[in-house]
Amino acid sequence: SDANVSKKELCEHIAKHVPEFVYLDAPVGKDPDQRNYIVSNAKIEATGFKQRIVLQIGWRAMEEVENSPQKLADMVYHYGGIVEDVLLDPSGGKGRPFDLEKAREFLRELASRNLDVNLGIAGGLGPDSMHLVESLLEEFPHLNIDAEGKLRDSEADDLDISKMTTYIRSSLQMFKEAAHPKEWRGIATSHSTADP
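RE: above sequence
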């Protein structure tokens, strides 16, 4: 598999695509991170699994490009051929909601560049905030979503199974409705009238 590379090979690959990337290969001393071995992915790939590389863009990266969708898209261009997905995540797992209109601007700019990457958003998504995503689906029907902070128990900070289940079910419903609005809404209506 082409995913089976050493740390040095990975750095060499990144440097081909990101000219300003610098790495040091020191012949002396000992690297505290000794994970410079190649592991075979053959068994897991035989099951049909294929890894995807996601470029997660947080609030610091957005600040570095002055919150400019054009400048961000210019930077993402350098990752062409390396990443399959771009995730706009100004929250960083903290449950802070994203700015809907700003997210739309970034998504539009990235989509307009034909970068051959899947687009996704994160930030404050959970069972009670799916309306933020719903308004984006008409324009971006293949949008990926990611959630963490709003799926946690506020006291123990553990993932809450009930919140996760509600989130997954509402997400599935929302994406099905977006894919087939007339058909799905008709089914949903008939179910709601039949159930007491």
